[in-house]
C-alpha cells in the first residue's frame, strides 16, 4: 500500500452503478488494515451511503499508483482542502514513520470542517486557513504555500481542480530548481517524462479522485488530460506529477 | 442442460460458446485483464473494445459520468492500434479457453478489409464484430448503420477479407433496424448483435454545458434493457442468423428475458466493469436454472416471446 492509492468498496448499490472508490487515508502494513476518511456531510450522499454503522463491506485494492516519496527528501509539504484531505492523509503518517519533517496546510470554508489536530501525529506541523477566518489564516490555502516552498523537498496535494491548478501554476517553471529535483542531479540526464523516476523527482505531486470507472484499466472512463494525451486515473494515477497533467480550462 | 452453441455454423471451426453469457464490447477492455481476473468464472466469449488500424487517443475527459439508472459515456474508442493490441493481448487470448471476438469500427471499407485480413492470420482470434455504430467518415460522421447501403458495403468488405466468424453490430439508432439486419445477413454476416445503449446528455453542475468532454454520450446500465429487448425482438423476427443482445443485463432474470426475446447470446458491458466475473457466474446460474426447470437445451429458451408465425419453433433445425 502507498499513500495516494484508493480502494473499491463492494457495497450494496443500485444495479448499473459502478463500484464506489474511497481513498486510502491510512494503513497499517503489519496489521494489514487500511482506513479511509470521509467528511461528516459526505456520509449520506458519498460513496458509502449504502452502509450503516456496524455494517461490513469488502474493500478491493489497493488500486492505482500512489505518491512517490523520494528516499532523500527530508522535508515534506502536504497541501489539501477538505475534499482532498483524505487522499493525502496517509502521506503524513508515512513521513513521520520515516523520520521526515512534515507540514500540513489545510484549507477549509469554516472552522467546523477543519480536520482535528489531535488526529494528526504530534510530529507534524499543522497550519490551517479558513475562508471565513474562523480558524487560522483567513483566505485560501494556496496563499500559505509560498512560505514553505523553499523549505520543502517535495509537496503532495489533493483537492479541488482550482486549488490544484493554482499549485501547479506555482510549481511550474520552478520545477528542476526546487526541492528534491536538485538533489544529486547529474548533468544531461533527464528522467523519462511520466516514468516513476520523473514522478519521484517532481516537486509537486497531486492525487486526483477516482470518481467513476472499473479501476482495472479496461473501461478507459476515468481519464484526465495528460501531457501526451489522456491518462487513466486508475492506472497511471491517481497520483501524478503536476508536470504530467494539462491544466487548460475545459472548452 | 446443454448451454453450448455454435453461432457461426457456416464457418470452418464455427464460433462455439460454452454458455450464452458474454462480455460485450466495452465491458472488458481488450480481454486480457478480464480473463486474468475471473479465474474459473469465464464468460461465454469476450468481445474486445473497438480496435482501429492506427492508435486513437479517444474522447476528451470526462468520458464517463453517473446517470440515473446507469452511466453516460463517450469514450471515443481509445486504443493503441491493432498491432499493439495483438502484441500485448493475443497471447493471453490464445491461452484462455474463451473465444475472443475483436471489435472493429465500420468506418472505412479499406480499413475494415486491412484489419480483417490481419485478424485472419491470428489463430488466437475467434471472430470479428463489425460495429456499424461507428462514425462513417465519408458520410460526415453519422453512424454507418443508419444507411442500409453503407452497412452492406462494410459487411461485404469484411466478409471478402476473412473467413473468420463475422458478427455485425447494428446501430441502435437506425430508423428501421430490421432492414439493416436483413441487408447485412444477406451480405454474409454469421450473426448480428444489438445493444440497447442510446444517446443521452447529462449537464455539468453549473448547467452551462455537457458533463462529458464530448457533447453527448451513450447511456448504458439498467435503463437500456427495454430498448435492447425491443431491438432483439425486432431483429430476431427479421433474420434467421443468431442475434446477440446486450443492454442493462445484471441478473439471471435479465438473461432469461433476452433469450426469450430471441437472443442466442446475451452481452454484459456496464455490469462487467463493476464485476468482471458476473458473466461467468450468470452462466452457472443459467445452468442451474435450466436443470431445475427441466430444460434440455438452451435453444429451447430462445425466442419464446416471439410471435408464433415467425418464431424459432417453426423453423428448420439443424
Describe this structure in words.
The complex is a heterodimer of chains A (251) and B (318). Chain A is of the alpha/beta class. Helices cover 14% and strands 25% of the residues of chain A. A seven-stranded mixed β-sheet of chain A has the order 9-8-7-6-10-11-14, with helices on both faces. In chain A, strands 2-1-5 form a three-stranded antiparallel β-sheet, with no helix packed on it. A two-stranded antiparallel ribbon of chain A has the order 3-4. The longest helix of chain A is centred in the middle third of the chain and has 13 residues, at 85-97. The N and C termini of chain A lie far apart (36 Å). The mean pLDDT of chain B is 92. In chain B, helix 5 packs across helix 6 (225-238) and helix 6 (225-238) runs parallel beside helix 7 (252-261). Chain B has 318 residues and is an alpha/beta fold. Classes of the chains: A alpha/beta (251), B alpha/beta (318). Chain A binds chain B through residues 14-19, 212-214, 216-225, 229-230, 250, and chain B through 26, 28-30, 33-34, 37, 49, 57-58, 60-66, 69-71, 73, 75, 78, 209, 213, 220-223, 248, 250-251, 270-271, 273-274, 276.
In short:
The complex is a heterodimer of chains A (251) and B (318). With 251 residues, chain A is an alpha/beta fold.
Strand content of chain A: 25-35%
Q: What is the end-to-end distance of chain A?
A: 36 Å
Total E-strand runs of chain B: 14
Secondary-structure-based class of chain A equals: alpha/beta
- Beta-strand proportion of chain B: 15-25%
Average pLDDT score of chain B = 92
